[in-house]
Specification:
InterPro entries: NAD(P)-bd_dom_sf, Sc_DH/Rdtase_CS, SDR, SDR_fam. Belongs to the short-chain dehydrogenases/reductases (SDR) family. Pfam families: adh_short_C2. There is one protein chain. The protein is of the alpha/beta class and 269 residues long. It is 46% helix and 15% strand. The protein has a 7-stranded parallel beta sheet with strand order 3-2-1-4-5-6-7, with helices on both faces. α1 packs parallel to α2. The two termini are 36 Å apart. The mean pLDDT is 92.
Amino acid sequence: MKLGIEGRRALIVGSSSGIGAGIAVMLAAEGVEVIVHGRSLENAEAVVAEIRAAGGRASALIGVLDKPEAVERLAAETLATGPIDILVNSAGATISVRGWFEVPMEVWQQQYQFSTLYAVQLIRALVPAMRERGWGRVLNISSGAAFKPMAFHPEYSAAKLALHTIACSLARELGDCGVTINTLISGLVMTMNTRAMIQKTAQAQGFTETGVELERRVLREVWRSAIPIARAGRVEELAAAACFLVSEQAAYITGASLRVDGGGAGYVN
């Protein structure tokens, strides 16, 4: 299937590693000019180098999205090099792993800034021009924790659920203008951090399996995972779904949330 996005320009926020990096690499392979954004220049440039080595077009922008003025600066630097057709909001991190009554209010505020408010600000800065040109794609990367929250880090689940609400609301605001906005809901994904957690857990339990068998045993016996496919997702699997949602082929999909979580609707019981 041809995605019909060759020659488009994309800003992938939070793409110097993990799911965002996977999306950047796959979009570039589809002929999209990609702006790789992250907090680490070294990591962002490594993704850019990978894309260029494969014949793609990419550049790097660095910035921490901790304040509105920092997000404004990112938007200005992005537009200074040309219009943006595709915006992927993939930034976000778990700031706290504390419970409801242990999470300070400032952490709630920080979490919303890192996971939600930056996306709102970038949408406001970049989408009006997409609307004028009659074509655009916005994709928010959320988490299964938004729909199956835990008792701990409630601020993370709430901030990620807000991305879904934003997409539903904006889809109605945009209507039939050629711009769509959707949400990709990620389950457990085999990033470097996930792999490290699995290895640490396996060592503590004395497990001797390797590869997927070790992964499945940790998920089943220790983490009590409810993922029917019984493994973590791969970055490439998330990236493929993301590329479809920002493609020409997905023109009739807007305001939707696509779960890519192995059937788990969240990744723990």
